[in-house]
Amino acid sequence: MSAASSGCDGVSAARCSAIRQLPTASPSAACASTESWRTGSRVRLGESPPFRIRVVHTPGHARGHLCFFEETRKVLIAGDMVAGLGTIVIDPPEGDMEDYLRSLERLRKLEPTVLFPAHGPVLVDGATHLQAYLRHRRWREGRVLRAWREGARQPAEMLPSVYPDLAPEARPLAERQIVAHLERLRRAGELAPAADGVHASS
User: Fold this and answer.
1) Are 69 and 53 in contact (CB under 8 A)?
2) Within 10 Å of residue 57's Cβ, how many Cβ atoms?
3) Candidates 3.40.50.2300, 3.30.700.10, 3.40.50.620, 3.60.15.10; correct CATH number of 13-187?
4) How do residues 71-93 score in pLDDT, each as one tens digit?
């Protein structure tokens, strides 16, 4: 069967294969369910064959964010934890960088084979992508901490060293990422308290 005839036009062979692995679940069955979706609980979608997923609470981008893990094929519906295109914005106070990093680590330990993000294409070799996200965020946080130690105190001051070559239209979102990192660093005791003049949640 060709990619075109399977409904995978414009999708790589690996991604198309990942999509075709998933059973078709009945949306009405999911919507009609009155089961409480709690982290760790298993939810059955569809009827024949049933499609069972594990609910995983993954705060960080948003406090109530949930991911759904299909354990047989190790497929993760990752939502706003990762992006096929672009990046995930962590915007305090709804977003929290510490929670986000913990959630990424929780998902990485599931060793998913495929990620279905809310935006962008399917990501194969899911565990590797999650590890790369963790590594990149920690690398960026290192740049924030270095800027702090060099005397910068406001997110706008840190932009040139933390996000070099940044497009002007991306500056507001980048500043919010710096705020999120500063809040995490402050809670970890890496920054001097109060007198620094930074209002991290503003």
Assistant:
1) yes
2) 16
3) 3.60.15.10
4) 989 999 999 999 988 889 999 99
